[in-house]
Write a structure and sequence with these properties.
alpha+beta; 2 domains; four-stranded antiparallel sheet; 12 strands; Jelly Rolls; Arc Repressor Mutant, subunit A; 226 residues
């Protein structure tokens, strides 16, 4: 792969010149994380930005009663760890690989210098943070107001946006997290997830193929549950 080319697909770096991308790649480091391996922990100090080259990770927090609450699932070309870099505070969440993942790591001082030198990176970062905040607001409202079916549908729509692949109006969700992880995203039980997914399948809204799910008519699904 050409030096710096993989960074071109990361939204906050997409407008940088090739020589800058090459410089970032040389200064950063790649690391492989195995499935279920913790990449960073909530409350530890933050010294780096992480970019996903391949694989998937879950971002989670622990509730007061000790339960895991999954905030999001991130995949190829997504990034995480930016909050602790920007404010110097401890990590706000734990990030764990949910499949074997290759991560590119940029140290804090290098990323801060990049923000100072390239204002378009800072602007793109603000836009992405705003998008994530709006998405979180929508999810919080949906999960607090909707019934079990609506909560599961909300999570499927979130996964469709983050890891889905659109093919002729259908959205393919490949290698989904285990049902317990989906339950932790929806704030419900694994049994409810299983029951609701099979209900959606009976209605012809989704097709289940092992660890993969296909939303048959994505626009219709959004109209029903968005």
């Amino acid at each position: 792969m050409e030096a710096g080319s993989f960074l071109r697909y990361v939204p906050i770096f997409s407008n940088l010149p090739d020589d800058t991308l090459k410089s970032i790649e040389i200064s950063g480091a790649r690391k492989i994380y195995s499935r279920n391996e913790v990449i960073l922990k909530e409350d530890e100090s933050g010294t780096a930005l992480f970019i996903i080259l391949s694989g998937k990770v879950k971002v989670s927090r622990t509730s007061e009663d000790g339960k895991e609450v999954i905030l999001s699932i991130l995949s190829e070309n997504d990034f995480f760890g930016e909050m602790a870099i920007l404010d110097g505070q401890a990590r706000s969440a734990t990030v764990t690989a949910i499949e074997d993942s290759e991560i590119f790591i940029i140290q804090r001082n290098e990323f801060i210098e990049l923000l100072k030198e390239h204002h378009d990176v800072a602007l793109a970062l603000l836009e992405e943070l705003t998008r994530r905040l709006r998405s979180a607001d929508v999810k919080i409202k949906a999960l607090s107001l909707k019934d079990a079916e609506g909560k599961v549908a909300t999570v499927l729509l979130e996964l469709a946006e983050s890891i889905g692949k659109i093919k002729q109006g259908k959205v393919e969700l490949e290698k989904l997290p285990v049902q317990q992880d989906i339950a932790n995203m929806a704030g419900t039980s694994r049994e409810t997830i299983s029951r609701t997914l099979h209900s959606f399948a009976k209605k012809g809204l989704i097709e289940i193929d092992g660890p993969n799910i296909r939303i048959v008519d994505y626009e219709k699904f959004k109209e029903l549950y968005g």
